[in-house]
Each structure stands twice: as structure tokens, then as C-alpha cells.
Amino acid sequence: MPEAADYRPPLARLPAPFPFETPSSWVCRAALSQGESLRTLFSYVDIAWRGDMDLRLCSSPGVAAMSRLGLANPFPLARVIFDRVCAMKGGTDLLLLRNETGSPSYRYCIHCLRAQRTPHFEIHGRFVAWRFCPLHDCLLQEGCPHCGAPISLPIDMLSSGPEGAGIAFLSACRHCGKSLKDGSPLGIYEARLSPWEHVLLKNGRASMAALLMGSGRALETGREVSLKALARSGLLPLQNQWPAASELRERMLVASDIIRQAREGGGAPRRIAQTLTR
User: Fold this and answer.
1) Residue 81 in contact with residue 87, Cβ under 8 Å?
2) SS3 category, 21
3) Average per-residue pLDDT in the chain?
4) Which residues in 74-152 belong to E strands, given as ranges?
5) Which end of the chain has fewer CB within 10 Å, C or N?
6) Cα(117)–Cα(29) distance, rounded to whole angstroms?
7) What is the pTM for the complete model shown?
8) Confidence check: pLDDT of 174 > 90
């Protein structure tokens, strides 16, 4: 990369962000396109590499830094949504997925990832309440289908994967290097969700629309309702009140055991007994 102290020309061959791509996803691809680490890319535009990079890159200094890289209007959709999250008191802690170090974490739809010509992660997968893909009616994947590692970004693609050998696409797990496209998504209609759980899923989807549009309205009254009020009322599928896809699969196995043992005329179902004693 050029080392000029004052003038730093825009970088060539940067990939264009996709409309719904999250900033932390794009910077991974941008650094790889230059054959550089994230730290080198960020130092080139004088932006600190720490904290929540989605929020940092959507801030005014972050937008200015991305403009210096050559992006004329970086992340317009992400900026609207993350700005509104930051404007809510406690909104970042309430609504955004993070790992134990505070870095952005994501869920994703396996079908959508398979359909992308260039693999990337989308804004809605960053939000706690966004639990299912409305295009494919399936629950989102929580992590790598092979090793279970969570999806945390940004990452240095040059040094990710087994033994730090690097990964060519974001569809490869940063830990084991295997494809994130593998596995069978769990459909929302086969997951044996209760009617209330279906309501929570729809409310989670509506919360993203409210963030984009600036407000939401209650279906019964038509009055504006804040996302924080919905969360306090238990009307959003937040982390502490919603099982992961793995737990829902266990629920399906329990139900299958009940049906099978009932048909066989056996005693108390083994799996349901194990579940109740946990």
C-alpha cells in the first residue's frame, strides 16, 4: 500500500458493498482484495481497529474513512438502521448480537448464503430479534454447522481457517475452514413452534421494519410503539427467552419419541423424562 503521510489515494479494485451487506462483512472482503490485514487497511485511513466495527464504520468518522478508501456513499441502509439503534437508550445492548469480546456476531440463512454469488453477511443477521428467513421460512443458523463456532466479524481472511492458512470466501468457517453452506436448515413449520412463538418471530421481523422506517405501530390500536417497550413487554424474541435451533431440534426429537412410544404402547417416553430432569 502507498505510504504517503498526507495524501493517500483511494485503493484500486475494492469490491462494492452489497445493498444489505453489513460493514464488518465488507471490510473483510476489502482487506482480502488488497492482500492486506484488517489492521493495515484501517491504519491506512486512520481508524482504530477495536470495538463494534459495524457501529464504528457507520459513524461520521467511519464514513469519512470509507470515503478516503474510494466509497462515495458507503453503507446507506446500514447507517440508517445502526444510527437509530444508537439513538435508543440501551439499544445496542438490547438489539445487537455480540460475542464475548464485544465483536459483532451474526446468524445467517443457509439457503441465502448458498444463493449468493459472492458470500457475505447481511444487516438483519446482526439483530437478536431476527430469528428466521422470511424468504425460505427457516430458522437462522447460529454458527458453523461443522464445528459450532459462532460467526464473528470482522476477521482477517488471509490468516483465518485451519493453521492460519487463510480462507477465500466468507462462506468458509474462520475456525475449521469448512463450508457454512452445509447442513439442513430447520423450517419454522417443522420446528413444532407454539402459536406464541410464531408471533414472536413475526414481531422480530417487524422490529427491523420499524428500525428502517423510524417507528412501528401496534396492530390492534394503530398507535406508535417503541422497540424498547416491546422488549420490556416480552414481545420480541430476545436471547434470554428464545431457544436456539439446536434446542428446537431436541424438542422435535422429544415429540417424535412421544409419538413412537405411544404407537408401540410403551411406558413413559425416555426423552421427555430426560428433558424434565435437566
Assistant:
1) no
2) strand
3) 83
4) 105-106, 132-133, 138-139, 151-152
5) C
6) 14
7) 0.83
8) yes
